[in-house]
Amino acid sequence: MITAAVLAALAAACAIGSWRLTTARWTSRAPRPAIILWQSLGVAWGLATTGAMLAFGVQPYGIGVLPGLVAFARGEAPLQAWDPLHVLAMIAGLTALTVLVVVLIAAGVHALRARRRHRTLLALISRDDPGVPGVRVLDHPGAAAYCVPGLRSQVVVSEGALRLWSRDELAAVLAHEAAHVRERHDLVLLPFAALRRALPWSKVVCEAQEQVELLIEMAADDRARRYCSPRRLATALLRFGTAGAMPAPSGMLGLHASNVMARVDRLIKPAPELPRRTRAGIIALSVSLVTSTPFLWIIQL
């Protein structure tokens, strides 16, 4: 009973923390620690919520969640007789856990299929350009720039984007897209997309996905600033935002006109970074959330 209560309290704390994080102002000053904190809150919330129900469900066995599930799967008799509340908690916990796992797998499969189809399409309608080596160019008048993540990642720009940007601005955008590929931001977004599929009615979940999408763009901007002028990147974003740009295809990572101004303001008027101790504290909190929740699945309090 104590384990179930602790897991329920942890789930509530993660939900409140996620709600507060959607309005936090410090995240743009440290996008990478903020992304790590978002990921840890999501993992801990999912495990704590399902774990609380399962901990109450396996209470008749008198052991932890994971050992109790193993005993239940083996058909072992509990120490106490089942009652309707424990049976209901077991069904609810197993259903919630199954839904989360299935939705995550479905989101991954959907993304892989979309990228496979898009690579096939790119092979037919895009071309190489000596002026931008290693980049696929689409013969389209609209402005577009995005990457196709994966083991065979590709960076794609349109003919309209090549005409829109100067050489320095194009280099800044390509550095940004290369950061997405290098840091595998597609894997960062996948759990949030899956959670939104499972809970489309949740305002916090929708806002969390939007926040993480913006944060990975800011993190890629920070990586690009190592190789180009922040003002060049900001100018390229402004041109993109006012040119009637094309959205990135589903499953790809690319420039979005919706968050351009927030990124431009950050590039032109950068706020001071969070102190190193603060960033270390955020990462330590994230690690503790991720490690403590599975531990509560094993022990019996």
TrEMBL record:
Its cofactor is Zn(2+). InterPro entries: Beta-lactam_resp_regulator, Peptidase_M48. Residues 114-191 form the Peptidase M48 domain. Binds 1 zinc ion per subunit. Signal peptide: none annotated. It holds the Pfam family Peptidase_M48. Gene3D superfamilies: Metalloproteases ('zincins'), catalytic domain. Keywords: Hydrolase, Membrane, Metal-binding, Metalloprotease, Protease, Transmembrane, Transmembrane helix, Zinc. CDD domains: M56_BlaR1_MecR1_like. The chain crosses the membrane at residues 34-56, 88-112, 280-299. PANTHER family: POSSIBLE SENSOR-TRANSDUCER PROTEIN BLAR, SLR0241 PROTEIN. Belongs to the peptidase M48 family. This is M56 family metallopeptidase. It comes from Nonomuraea corallina.
